[in-house]
Design brief:
Layout: H1 4-18, H2 29-50, E1 52-56, H3 58-71, H4 75-80, E2 88-94, E3 101-109, E4 112-120, E5 125-126, E6 131-135, E7 140-144, H5 146-154, H6 160-188, E8 194-200, H7 204-213, E9 221-227, H8 229-241, E10 252-254, E11 257-260, E12 266-269, E13 272-274, H9 289-296
Parallel strand pairs: 1-2, 1-9
Antiparallel strand pairs: 2-3, 3-4, 4-5, 4-6, 6-7, 8-9, 10-13, 11-12
Helix pairs in contact: 1-2, 2-5, 3-6, 3-8
């Protein structure tokens, strides 16, 4: 199966070429939607080509997601002060045990950060039904839904509820993947939390197919994000706290966490090992209460032992 990024690029490129530009004098709703979709799709194709590409391994994504959940409402100050390392990011991840793949295209602009979530399985590709922009100065999210509006206009009335449900899911996933991008950017600045390895943007099967057919593939590289030493410790500490790993040790990892600083911002405290060092032997003697009472009472021969 081709990589998610290749499927997305081909889908949006096909919209650009298959949808004909309406005449300049046409001003009906259908013509306006087609113009928006063609413009939006062309922007996505260009952005995918320019974006810095990342693939989150499952455990790294799980650790980052848990950090976001722990912060609750405290995550919004971090969102407001977010500065991503690149103006365009593509973040994709696999879902273990399924054929589903998820990705988000994230664009940091002057007026905010735009997020487009999309997903696919082995049969279907779902484009971004809701394009959301987080505007720090505006205090929240702005929505743009050209592909959703076209889907609603073209589908049977009985299928509209499914598209509304899918749009709501995409909006939740937009926020999650924006959070993953912000948390990943923060964790990359702390040594040992995450590791980065470059790999080909095409799967091995796709490269073999292209070689057989004499097709030239784009020289796409993806940065694979996995847990580093401290990241693995953080993941382990979280699993123990959740009761998923009941193995108890004298030396154990204490989870890191985000915390508010005096300046009103958000800072990160690194995970660390507690209880390391040499074992110190101790001898303890415990007496039953009645025995203590007898030894405290003086007798003719002095205290008894």
């Amino acid at each position: 199966m081709p990589r998610m990024i290749d499927t997305a690029r081909a889908y949006y490129q096909n919209l650009v070429t298959s949808l004909k530009e309406p005449p300049a004098f046409a001003s009906d709703p259908l013509a306006d939607r087609i113009r928006r979709i063609r413009r939006d799709s062309a922007d996505v194709v260009e952005a995918i080509g320019m974006a810095q590409k990342f693939r989150l391994e499952f455990e790294a994504a799980e650790m980052l997601s848990n950090l976001l959940q722990e912060m609750g409402d405290g995550i919004f100050p971090m969102f407001k002060g977010a500065r991503l390392p690149f103006p365009l990011l593509w973040i994709e991840r696999d879902i273990p045990g399924s054929t589903q793949q998820q990705a988000a295209l994230i664009h940091q602009r002057e007026d905010g950060i735009t997020v487009r979530f999309m997903n696919r399985d082995d049969r279907h590709f779902a484009p971004a039904l809701s394009v959301m922009t987080f505007a720090p100065e505006g205090g929240g999210w702005k929505h743009d839904t050209p592909h959703f509006e076209q889907a609603i206009a073209a589908c049977e009335p009985g299928a509209r509820a499914d598209f509304h449900a899918a749009k709501a899911e995409h909006e939740e996933m937009n926020i999650l993947h924006f959070g993953l991008a912000v948390a990943m950017s923060e964790m990359l600045s702390h040594r040992g939390m995450l590791e980065v390895d470059e790999e080909s943007g095409q799967s091995r099967a796709e490269r073999r197919r292209a070689m057989r057919e004499g097709e030239d593939l784009p020289a796409t590289r993806i940065s694979r994000i996995s847990l580093g030493e401290f990241g693995r410790g953080q993941h382990l500490a979280m699993r123990e706290a959740d009761g998923k790993d009941q193995t108890r040790r004298r030396a154990h990892w204490v989870r890191g966490h985000f915390m508010r600083n005096r300046a009103g911002g958000v800072s990160w405290r690194m995970p660390h090992i507690r209880g390391a060092g040499p074992v110190i032997g101790q001898e303890r003697r415990i007496a039953a209460p009645e025995a203590v009472a007898r030894t405290d009472a003086p007798g003719e021969d002095g205290p008894g032992f």
